[in-house]
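step=predict obj=Adenylate kinase n=217
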Amino acid sequence: MRIVLVGPPGAGKGTQAAFLAKNLSIPHISTGDLFRANISQGTELGKQAKAFMDAGNLVPDEVTIGMAKDRMAQPDAVNGFLLDGFPRNVSQAEALDASLKADDVQLDAVLDLEVPEDEVVKRIAGRRICRKDSSHVFHVTYSQPKVEGVCDVCGGELYQRDDDSEDTVRNRLEVYHTQTEPIIDYYRAQGLVVTISALGKVDEVTARAMDALKRDK
């Protein structure tokens, strides 16, 4: 299957993408991974992306699209893939359609993870990260440490990242509504959108998504 995964920040896209890709035996292709791989490997596209990022500028669509096209052409993606974080706007969606059409293939589904805005803010603004090891993550509501402000694993101080503050989260949501959400209507016009609730436990959401994708086939 060839799937695009969309949803607001805090919807759990990265977590669901990993589980869904494994269940469907297709590669999980994320924008972040594309950037890191191309930059670390020193590809021409990676050099271009790094130059923009080092200057504090957004990476242009054509660079991101080029990376995505190269990755989708790899042998492990011949029979399908799950795109996470791409396309992020309608122009990228149009470019993706053109690229797939050139290869005589098409998307099977666009999975839309739906989460109420207040829940997104609660999820992200409630995160607390360990200063000693950022892989140790807690939450003021869903995963509280035994001692407030102290990491259960190593005893490090727990803190809220600047980009997890409520104001920043709401700004990120505004960017999502303005730039990325329009691709849902774009793909809905093609009959590709499958919307599911992303509320509940991780395995419940995964099962819901797998069921919806099977029914959509």
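step=describe
The domain at 2-27+74-216 is CATH 3.40.50.300 (Rossmann fold).
step=end
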